[in-house]
Amino acid sequence: MEVGQRLQAIRKAKGLSQRELAKRVNVTNSTISLIEQNKVSPSISSLKKVLDGIPISLAEFFTLDMESGEDSAFYPASQQPDLGSAGIELHMVGKGRVARQMCILREVMPPGSDTGGEMLKHDGEEGGVIVQGQVEVTVGEQVRVLGPGDGYYFESRSPHRFRNVGTDEAIIVSANTPPTF
After folding, report:
1. Does residue 68 form part of some domain?
2. Cis link prior to 111 (omega < 30° from 0)?
3. Is 42 in contact with 50 (CB distance < 8 Å)?
4. Which are the contacts of 158, defined by CB distance < 8 A and separation ≥ 6?
C-alpha cells in the first residue's frame, strides 16, 4: 500500500475528515488530499507532522498491517521494513520487538536527498555513524559534513536535519530512544 492510500485508510479508521486532520496540523486540506492521492510525496518531517495529528507514530503507520512475528534477536535485511519516504530509506531493525526501548535504523539516502526543509524535533536522544557517503548534519546552529566513520549524538529536542551532500548514496546506521519509529 502506498503512503497516500495508507494515510487515507488510517485517517478514516480514526474518524477524521481531511479538513479536521489539516486543521490539527496547520496545513490546507488540499495538502492532505494531494498526499492521499499520491500526487505529492511528503518529506519525513512533513509526514511525521501529519501523523502527529492523528496521532500515530511513523513505525505504527508503516507496520500497522504487518504481523509482529517472534521476538527474535536477529533480523535479516528482508525483515527490516522501510519506514522512509521521499526517496530516503529507513530500514527498522527489530520490527517484532515487544515494548521497544530504542529504534535502530539503517538509513539509505540518495545523492541530494534531505529530511526536509522543516527541521525534525522530538523527545529523546539519537546517534549514528556514517557508513558511506557525505552527510551534512545540522543540530541547532551547528552544521557539519560527516563522512565514513564519523558519528553524531545529540538531544533530539534540538532541531535537526540530515542532507546527502555527496555524489554517491549515503548510508547511516542510527539509533534513537525513546523510539520515534
Report:
1. no
2. no
3. yes
4. 121, 139, 140
| Domain presence at residue 70 | no
Regarding whether 165 and 96 lie in a shared domain, the answer is: yes
* Integer angstrom CA distances of residue 39 from 26, 28, 33, 104, 114: 20, 15, 9, 30, 19
Residue keyed to cell 541530494:
112
73-106 pLDDT, tens digit per residue, is: 888 898 888 888 878 999 989 876 766 788 899 9
16-74 pLDDT per residue, tens: 899 999 999 999 989 999 999 989 888 888 888 899 899 888 877 877 655 444 567 88
Enumerate long-range contacts of 13-19, CB under 8 Å, 24 or more apart: 14/54, 14/56, 16/54
Distance CA 39, CA 170 (A): 26
The domain in which residue 86 lies consists of 77-177
**Same-domain check for residues 101 and 21:** no
Neighbours of 167 (CB within 10 A): 9
- What CA–CA distance (Å, rounded) separates 2 from 26? 23
Any idea what DSSP says for residue 119? P
> In 3D, which of 64, 81, 71, 72 has the Cα closest to residue 9?
64
Cell numbers at 156, concatenated: 533530539
